[in-house]
């Protein structure tokens, strides 16, 4: 009996210790959960959006992880709001939401909701980690990378269409969906331009001169190529380092002139060339841009796309754009006959730059079938 007493004491001590330990562990776990929740909550409130911040590429879901139809991710790269939201709203109306997703990169803190946007398809779709973009600089391609990164999080997203705030669709949803899905290739306008001086020798040897490419920023990608861009840790830092918009300083011409490589027209094209996937591309853009042909030689250096207005977006003009079947690449003497999976197809699914008036005209001329003005009134009400 006497022997057992210390043992029993020891046992009670042990039990007390274990209880204490359990309490400490429980409290720690509780604290951790609280801290994690707070972090998450703060991130959400700061971002002003309900979207989850993207994870790193290592945790990206596998393509086979999804069920249901493949989606097109529509990636809107905008300055602030979406002036043509009413047209896109009509485009997405009556389509199965299982077939598409929307992501927007706008200025940090801008929120898409009832007060800033006329179509609920865009509510809360702004990236929570958006950055301040300087047009033409590497921050612009970083914004594109952020859009692709966020969209890759959803394994159902199989095609990625980059759009600006002045882009319009030229066809209804089902036509565009079937066109883009039928192609196992990305649509990336990409060409050589020997006369162009945008390549900077400082980029060598990371970016070899013979891989330097140029082309429209408005791309449509398959998942594999979107991953190449998001995972790139080699080419982007060089663009970031070397490409700055040149400040022409006439007063002190000796001042170090920074190099303007026009990142947004070279980065994706050059990276894909360096990744040896040019054979997996339709080397053309799906987005029509009209350039002012009447500009003089002097003005050509600052060539600007024509902006379509209500008056210039009439049915004949739009029909003309939709009828284009090939594109000629002057610098390569290459004619690109537009094809989708080896079948002839119209070259362009989208067009820019469209004013609100021009977009209104498209709707009233019935670009998506018969137009019902009531839907517009409902949307703007
Ligand atoms: C979509 O557009 C195509 C071609 O313009 C047309 O053939 C088709 O009937 C339209 N589909 C719907 C659902 O309106
Ligand atoms: C969209 O998804 C549904 C199934 O959820 C499918 O029946 C339909 O054909 C798809 N395609 C288009 C273009 O809407
Ligand atoms: C492309 O065309 C081939 C041959 O006609 C066909 O077998 C294939 O399914 C098509 N691919 C897509 C993605 O539609
Ligand atoms: C094209 O450029 C010329 C000369 O700069 C200008 O007068 C004209 O208005 C422009 N046209 C369009 C459609 O922007």
Distance between the termini: 88 Å
The order of strands across the largest sheet is 2-1-3-6
Task: Give the overall average pLDDT.
Answer: 83
Count of domain modules: 1
Please estimate the helix content: 25-40%
The whole-angstrom Rg is 27 Å
Count of alpha and pi helical runs? 11
Instruction: List segments where confidence is low: pLDDT < 50 over at least 5 consecutive residues.
Output: 1-6, 29-55
How much strand content do the residues show? 5-15%
Overall, the morphology is globular
According to DSSP, the number of beta strands is: 13
Order of helices and strands: HEHEHEEHEEHHHEEHHEEEEEHH
Oligomer: single chain
Give the biggest beta sheet: 4 strands, mixed
Kindly name the structural category.
Answer: alpha/beta
Identify the bound ligands.
2-acetamido-2-deoxy-beta-D-glucopyranose
Pfam families: Branch
GO cellular component, one term: membrane
Keywords: Glycoprotein, Glycosyltransferase, Membrane, Transferase, Transmembrane, Transmembrane helix
Protein name: Glycosyl transferase, family 14
């Amino acid at each position: 009996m006497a022997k057992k007493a210390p043992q029993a004491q020891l046992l009670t001590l042990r039990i007390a210790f274990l209880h204490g330990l359990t309490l400490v562990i429980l409290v720690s776990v509780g604290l951790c959960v609280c801290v994690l929740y707070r972090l998450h909550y703060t991130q959400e409130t700061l971002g002003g959006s309900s979207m989850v911040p993207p994870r790193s590429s290592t945790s990206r879901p596998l393509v086979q992880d999804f069920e249901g139809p493949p989606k097109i991710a529509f990636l809107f790269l905008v300055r602030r709001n979406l002036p043509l939201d009413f047209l896109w709203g009509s485009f997405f109306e009556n389509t199965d939401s299982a077939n598409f997703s929307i992501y927007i990169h706008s200025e940090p803190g801008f929120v898409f909701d009832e007060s800033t946007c006329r179509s609920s398809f865009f509510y809360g779709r702004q990236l929570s980690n958006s950055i301040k973009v300087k047009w033409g600089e590497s921050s612009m391609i970083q914004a594109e990378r952020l859009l692709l990164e966020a969209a890759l999080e959803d394994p159902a997203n199989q095609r990625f269409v980059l759009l600006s705030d002045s882009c319009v669709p030229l066809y209804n949803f089902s036509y565009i969906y079937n066109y883009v899905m039928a192609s196992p290739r990305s649509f990336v306008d990409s060409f050589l331009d020997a006369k162009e001086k945008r390549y900077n020798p400082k980029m060598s040897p990371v970016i070899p001169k013979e891989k330097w490419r140029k082309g429209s920023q408005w791309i449509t990608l398959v998942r594999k190529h979107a991953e190449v861009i998001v995972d790139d840790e080699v080419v982007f830092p060089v663009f970031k380092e070397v490409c700055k918009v040149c400040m022409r300083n006439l007063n002190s011409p000796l001042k170090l002139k920074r190099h303007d490589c026009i990142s947004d027209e070279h980065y994706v094209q050059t990276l894909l060339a360096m990744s040896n996937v040019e054979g997996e591309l339709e080397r053309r853009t799906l987005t029509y841009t009209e350039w002012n042909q009447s500009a003089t030689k002097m003005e050509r250096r600052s060539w600007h796309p024509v902006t379509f207005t209500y008056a210039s977006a009439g049915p004949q003009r739009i029909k003309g754009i939709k009828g284009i079947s090939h594109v000629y690449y002057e610098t390569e003497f290459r004619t690109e006959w537009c094809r989708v999976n080896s079948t002839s197809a119209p070259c362009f699914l989208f067009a820019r730059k469209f004013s609100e008036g021009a977009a209104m005209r498209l709707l009233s001329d019935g670009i998506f079938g018969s137009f019902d003005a009531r839907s517009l009134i409902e949307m703007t009400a």
